[in-house]
Specification:
about 400 residues, alpha/beta, five-stranded mixed β-sheet
Length: about 400
């Protein structure tokens, strides 16, 4: 009882320059509030201030994914339990008012009464690297699209000679042609237009090269972070990166697969009333993760026989295509949760290549036997492509006696 009386819960309202902290006891009484700078020294002062009030049980922090990320990492490194606190209810804010100290006290009470119990993303591993690279990739894609649109729009009122030269060209064709322009004196409108088109085209090419480099980094990081996820049917580097970022470096913070489905907005929400029992579409959650699940489902509907059979059965029951996709997204969320929290071992392409070389079998023979292409087998061996089903069939085929491997393919 004495230890419980001495227990302290902290709450922090985070900002760019100053964090405001509040300390409350086990009964919810405010022990004090204080502001600290958002520096390493400020983090140390904040922790010392909280522990000075008693035994620190946990700290609730607002904005652990933005202004509070550094403090959350520091406290987690100091073995302090950190819980993520959502913004206070707007109705409650209107009734009680809004201030930094009020928000800090509300964060502390949410951590004390269990209203806030979720662990924040760790942000200290390869998934954090994937997140920041995806930010750069998205901005590069946006800028490249803008450059392509500007090239197209400039041609609307360009001189007839330019318009006829580039009429009917694809985006890539227009960019390639404009990048080779050699404009003259820019005082002439036609030459000025050529100069602008060349600048935009070269910007487009530079951004394309930048995106390709980022894609290579992302593919490598995804393969290192979770090769099992990348090897799942319908999951490419972009989809894998989206799901990994949604889960974070510590996916164990998600307590169940239903929690992950809710995080992705793939869980149905109960909307029953009286005698009507029904569920509605979940429009919340991480919409990028929801889109990643949708992309997996759409790929599997075209090339996965089990998914095709399921869709046919549900369609025979009277389900619409949209309803079938929603059901499939929920099943995929369950599968992805298992791959994120407890990924199975994945066959390494280098091991398959070594076994093939030892058996003296060419890529062409392997491709014929597995009904694939030599380039695809080569990409699998080099780690460029990840396909769990193909790798499993490859391993099974290599386990045959050597005479069976080469006998039917002289």
């Amino acid at each position: 009882m004495h230890d419980q009386d001495n227990e302290v819960t902290g709450g922090v309202d985070t900002h760019a320059e100053v964090h405001v902290a509040a300390a409350i006891d086990s009964l919810g009484r405010v022990l004090g509030t204080e502001a600290f700078p958002t520096t390493s020294g400020g983090y140390r002062q904040l922790l010392a201030w909280l522990t000075g009030h008693g035994q620190l049980a946990r700290v609730g922090i607002e904005g652990t994914g933005s202004y509070g990320a550094g403090l959350a990492r520091y406290l987690a490194g100091a073995k302090v339990e950190v819980v993520e606190v959502n913004r206070a209810n707007r109705q409650l804010r209107r009734r009680r008012g809004k201030s930094d100290t009020t928000d800090a006290e509300a964060a502390a009470r949410a951590a004390l009464n269990g209203e806030a119990s979720g662990a924040p993303k760790a942000g200290d591993g390869p998934v954090e690297s994937i997140r920041v690279l995806r930010l750069a990739r998205r901005s590069a894609i946006k800028a490249r699209t803008q450059a392509a649109n500007q090239i197209r729009d400039l041609l609307v009122n360009a001189p007839d000679q330019l318009r006829s030269q580039l009429r009917g060209c694809s985006t890539e064709g227009r960019v390639a042609t404009c990048a080779r322009f050699r404009p003259g004196d820019v005082s002439a409108p036609g030459e000025a237009t050529k100069t602008a088109l060349r600048a935009l085209a070269r910007r487009h090419l530079d951004l394309s090269s930048e995106i390709d480099d980022l894609d290579e980094h992302l593919a490598r990081l995804c393969a290192e972070a979770n090769p099992a996820l990348l090897a799942a049917r319908g999951v490419g580097p972009e989809v894998a990166a989206t799901l990994l970022v949604s889960a974070g470096d510590n996916p164990q913070r998600m307590r169940s697969e239903s929690a992950f489905a809710a995080l992705c907005g793939a869980s149905p929400v109960e909307a029953s009333s009286g005698k009507v029992i029904r569920h509605r579409l979940n429009t919340g959650g991480d919409r990028q993760a929801n889109n990643a699940l949708w992309r997996i489902v759409m790929v599997r509907l075209t090339c996965d026989e089990r998914t095709k059979r399921y869709a046919a059965e549900r369609r025979a029951e009277g389900k619409s295509t949209k309803e079938i996709i929603r059901c499939l997204k929920r099943y995929v969320a369950r599968e992805v949760f298992g791959l994120l929290t407890d990924p199975p071992p994945v066959l390494q392409g280098s091991d398959l290549r070594a076994a093939r070389t030892k058996a003296g079998v060419s890529l062409a023979i392997v491709a014929t036997a597995l009904d694939s292409r030599p380039t695809r087998i080569s990409e699998l061996e080099r780690g460029i492509r990840h396909d769990a089903d193909l790798a499993s069939r490859y391993e099974t085929w290599l386990a045959q006696p050597k005479a069976d491997l080469t006998g039917s393919h002289p």
